[in-house]
Design a protein that fits this description.
The complex is a heterodimer of chains A (246) and B (116). Chain A is of the alpha/beta class. Chain A contains 10 helices and 9 strands. Chain A is 38% helix and 24% strand. Classes of the chains: A alpha/beta (246), B mainly alpha (116).
Amino acid sequence: MYIISKVKVLLISLVVLGVSGCVAPPTYVTKGEEFPAMYVEKPKSLLIMPPINLSTAAEAKEYYSTTVEMPIALHGYYTFPYQLTADVLKQQGVYDSELVYDIPLTKFYDYFGADAVLFTKIIHWDTSYTVVASTLTVSIDAEIKSTKTSEVLWHYNGTVVVDLSANGGGGGMAGLLINAIATAINTAAADYTTYAKMANGRFVGSIPYGPYHPMYLKDQQMKLIQQHDEKTEQKPVETGIKHTAN
Amino acid sequence: MKTVFIVVFTTIFLAGCQTTKPMYEYENYSESFYSMKKEGGDETAAEWKISLENIIDKSKVKAVRVPPGVYANLGYIHLKANNSEKAIAFFEQEKQIYPEASKFMDNLIRKAKTQG
């Protein structure tokens, strides 16, 4: 019975979140409509490039790089061993993925045999503080580019915003103070890679499944939220995840 | 009443297992990879190697395919330790399960051979 009531609470909170989060209703598109080139080229293997770090956190690049392989492989693609390919790229003088982003990508087929290349950009990897609240944001832009044509076959963004403020300290000034202290504690303990994995989950889901997945070439009708990446600022998706101090 | 619940839950659980059998056994791959990057040093590198070996053992037990890149990563560890023979054997295994890796593995095998 305990489980059932928990489910109910979850459902209610989901509904509440859904309702309160309705600023503009999202537009849904199918994978087939949004990423037709993926179904035409049918890449089987993906070379994961070292992340391009646009955030202010220098360590983000190394840390984030450990989270990408697994979800992509579990999505059905052959992923080249990152630890090894990153070293090979360094030996070839590719220290930064920015360097190769705009050049023809055929050489990645020639050496690795990769059908396509996955670029990831770390847009946010930070925590913003205010006295009463703080939020942790991890935001990743991801792109799959063909090694045959160098064209973008797929792109999507995954963002996770976590409210780190501990609510429930009670009202009034005393409550405010407790919250501020709890916030500081939570922020210090925050593990970014946990949220990076969630952000990955958000974009990986929109990739058409790869050849090792049972849903390969069967997911054209699957719906996803259309993202507008030009000019308009990325609207972070609230997760509703609350971190509370224990 | 209690038994009914247990039966129901067990049924749901079993039914759920059939459809969601994991594709790969990853063990603590991502955690040990992260520790290696974060802390560095020989100890975390050794732990990462163990986690790669565990993935292979566990995959055999569970009769699932070894995840992409695991054999190749192990091969690379042996290559760096100047153990070309073992390195080549692992690169060959990666190629065997994943033909997509052939080109890259052939390049690495060539390198390992010249390294001797």
